[in-house]
């Protein structure tokens, strides 16, 4: 299990043999005993974090538990990116037949002491305002005034996040969502086979929107997804509205017909084409009749 401070990027890692709430809660309690209780804890939608036990745990310690948008791991990108780096380190130790647990603690020690690429300061300094001693040699430097460093770190952090957001938006051609409650939409679904469609064919109606988190429902279920996973159905393609529209048109455009007593007397003359027809040259040796 990985817990990472979004401000300082300081990571905590605990080894679990089960993903149940009873296994996760004591490990989190140990982290909070070392670092303190956070104001907000953001997590995914895994089984331990949706349980009643975890809800009571959050209420008991007094922190706000906020779950990210389902099926949208980018909302917890800092932890997801660290998990990739950590997994690579553990796989390397396993392939080289080393003790992966010992390598895990070595990796954490070096990671916490290395300046982060975004903040330009190490996670340990950002969180504890002191350098972490490692086996790497360090020069003797004058005492650091951490107030100035923290102000610079916050300014650089905001600038880097703005640049990363601009890059990600340009790469994915992101645009502001036009979804609003009452709209009829389709929801993106996981691809199960080659014949499955990208979107669920059953339409949903948008019920609520909070930032990029959208909740929609139909007669079968209610889903919460990121706004990019919805597709608006144009009004002319909405089956329910089309049925209502066709019913109204049938009532207004088909008035009752009135019998015309002279209708039987009206006969339409047979029309024939007036163009001149000629016999093809290949039929000159034969006797043909043109009707």
TrEMBL record:
PROSITE patterns: INTEGRASE. GO terms for biological process: DNA integration. It comes from the Eukaryota. Residues 248-264 have a biased composition (Polar residues). Gene3D superfamilies: Ribonuclease H-like superfamily/Ribonuclease H. Residues 154-176, 238-247 have a biased composition (Basic and acidic residues). GO terms for molecular function: nucleic acid binding. This is PREDICTED: uncharacterized protein K02A2.6-like. It comes from Paramuricea clavata (Red gorgonian).
